[in-house]
Amino acid sequence: MNLSRTILITGGSAGIGAACARLAAGYGADVILTYNSDRDGAKAVAADVRSAGRSAQIVQCDVSDPAQVEALFAAIPGDTALDLINNAGIVAPKAAVTEMSPERLTQMFGVNVIGAFLVAKQAVLHMRRAGKPGNIVNVSSTAARLGSANQYVDYAASKAAIDTFTQGLADEVAAEGIRVNAVRPGLIETDIHAKGGEPDRLERLVHMVPMQRAGRPEEVAEAILWLLSDKASYITRTIVDVSAGR
Fold it and tell me: Keywords for this entry (predicted)?
């Protein structure tokens, strides 16, 4: 599989985003990584990409801020053949819905939903200006199907919005040759569980997974990069579960 394009990866400093960057370099892609607070993580990922012989740029960007998203795209040369992995997202400590504040909900949907919209919007506009249709993969979650009661219903709802967004945007741009798909990771070995206040979450829930193990970020990244590649050239408006059957 050869990816001879530039791939913009939001939230590229750790987890699935970082795994995508490292694998993309191995498949021949240059990358642009955004991060919000973890500059050291982004620098480490970029160093790995460069060690593989590809170009890597890192850009600090709060995807929920329209001005920062516009500045991110303004710095990308106008003729760049661009693909997008719309990965940036947050989770909050586990809570019941009755315990969630308006501030928490505003931040959750601001980053996970509005941020994804803003970045995808600018990516489509860039592709149109460049005259080079590209591909978009949005990162959802199996939480969108499961609901995550008493844990992260707000996170689950934000990812359900990403599923619908993927389908709607795909319909809008398909005739232009722009493909839009999504992946829904299941229980994956990333630090998102600790950020949600549950560092032992994988151990507690892995028995519910038919394959009886958690997934690796690289396994999700392989699915994402396949969807970006020409091997998936007739696939759009599709959501792929990477969840071991759960």
Answer: Oxidoreductase
